[in-house]
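seq:
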Amino acid sequence: MSKVNRVWVMNKYADGPMENDNLVLKEFPLADAQEGHIRVRSMYLSLDPTNRVWLSSQYTYMPPVPMGGPMRGFVIGVVDQSRATGWAEGDIAYGLMQWADYSVIDPSQTVYMTKMSRSDGIPLEAWISALTMNGETAYYGMLIKGRPKAGETVLISGAAGATGVLAGQLAKISGTRVVGIAGGAEKCRALTEEFGFDAAIDYKQGNLLGAIQNACPNGVDVFFDNVGGETLDAALANLAMGARVVICGGISEYDKFGNPASIYGIKNYFALLLKRASMEGFVIFDFVGTLEHAKCQRSLMEWYRAGKLRYRAHVVNGMEQAFPSLRLLLTGGNKGKLVVRICDEIK
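struct:
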């Protein structure tokens, strides 16, 4: 076993556009698990838009990553040392850990940590792509906050992303008509041909406001937003009476996070009044440990096994590729759920 642990650490906050040295990969001595802790060897690291938010010095729904401290992210790994009750060597752990080959953590004190079964036969790539954080985010945002009803029209921005594509499939399970917004013909084709969306809008073709109006002639009953900015503004202008706007993310504005004056100012907010609509944000940590969380996990598994919940993974290999690959989320260069394979799945 290597006695060195590679860790991506905060080197310089990104309160404007990302730079190549916001995070640096450093080597540290491999620490042992202390009393009440487990040591987890990373197998897959999830790259998500929230990682871009966590590069900022601003307090969000979590404190900023300390300067010189390890970057945080969602990881699936195997426990190779345990001094914590209820955890054994060989257990598969999923949760919020470090961007590192190994994380030493107290599972009882982390924001999100769960033990995963080896007996279900589901590849870990599927777990980290569809059945954990992204699937749960889609479930809470679409089904709990959006409350779609059969026959309604659902519009999703960032629809070809890891969460958006799952949110669309959950909306279809609810009996709605689903329209996705994505960038480029290839991604739009995937939405309709692979993931069952009823229509797709290529925002790169321009006139997004008019395109939404054409695709949603009776208005938008549920808007699930991953993008923010002008995309959110265009959707607000096309709301149906009693619409629900769910704010999941705003990736178009993340590079402006440390400079509020530069963030796009919403112009069509008055539609919330005229259409008696609501707009609400959420994060998955709101639901951890609740009965709804357990129901969500059971439902996602049921739909996945029934073939109603599909995903596409974009896998990069090696811990050293984690931070450079994060840019793919901002440029739209990823084709599916972006994950880093740190090591082969351990049998």
